[in-house]
Amino acid sequence: MDGKILIPILITLGLFALIFGIYYFRNRERMAMIERGMNPHVKPQSAPYQNLKWGLLLLGAGLGLFLASVLTRTILTGDEDENVAIYFGLIFMFGGLGLFLSYRIEKKEVLDKE
Which of 16, 53, 73, 112 could form a disulfide with 102 if both were Cys (CB 3.0 to 4.6 A apart)? Predict the structure, then answer.
């Protein structure tokens, strides 16, 4: 049996299993909530600082990518393929810095409210 025919079959079966699993476990969760006397249609409370967290994470990752590009083109010598680690390192470092900044802002706002 050729591998070219097996790939679409496996993708189709995997997609079907994924959709079935999502609906099955969602139904089990709802039934468990009903058994405990909870309303399964109540939406969970939104996190007020979620947009700030994602915004600062993406801003930090973009800043890290930009800085890595600038460093590769100006200071670092060699081909861009040789300096791949600096791209990942700076993206994760500035993304983490963005998340830390989000945490500090959220903590300050919560303490100011109290």
Answer: 53
